[in-house]
Design a protein that fits this description.
Blueprint (H helix, E strand, L loop, with lengths): L1 H11 L2 H11 L1 H6 L4 H27 L4 H5 L1 H14 L5 H16 L7 H15 L3 H10 L21
């Protein structure tokens, strides 16, 4: 997990990561700026496949078996969605915070097996209503606080003036 976060963090701060973020925002504009869309998408796909395969291998080593339900059950899908929604999409820290909160909440709700999914759903709806960008997205929006910033600082000696 830590290695995957480090690789994604470094990737997103690289030229390829900047290209991916430009493509996310506007594919046409990214292509106009000279970004090779095909190459950037293939690079992203290869990295995602590598970590998915690695996760599957680790999952097999831990469980000793693999079933389709291991990665495609409704509980698994809800858990992943909950982590991203609660923590905040579009941030590096959001899904990490969401995963921590999900694990803590599921441990706390372990004694309420019939109600745990309902309670998690209620929490997700409340967070969506109060903080539509998730906890980290809203925290950044209100305070500018980021732990793993993907923004690059301007080189020293360069200043940008507003157009008149």
């Amino acid at each position: 997990g830590v290695v995957a976060v480090a690789v994604v963090f470094l990737l997103m701060r690289s030229r390829t990561g900047l290209a991916l973020m430009a493509m996310r925002d506007n594919v046409g504009a990214a292509e106009t700026m000279g970004i090779n869309i095909y190459r950037a998408k293939i690079t992203c796909y290869i990295i995602a496949c590598f970590f998915t395969g690695l996760a599957g291998g680790v999952m097999y080593m831990v469980q000793g078996y693999i079933l389709p339900d291991s990665g495609f059950s409704i509980n698994w899908t809800v858990a992943m969605t909950f982590m991203v929604i609660i923590g905040g999409m579009g941030t590096m820290e959001g899904p990490i915070l969401g995963a921590i909160l999900y694990v803590l909440l599921t441990q706390f709700l372990f004694n309420f097996p019939g109600m745990s999914m309902i309670i998690l759903g209620i929490i997700a709806v409340v967070v969506i209503m109060i903080a539509p960008k998730g906890i980290m997205g809203t925290l950044y929006e209100k305070t500018g606080f980021e732990i793993l910033s993907l923004r690059r600082s301007m080189p020293k000696g360069i200043s940008i003036k507003k157009a008149e």
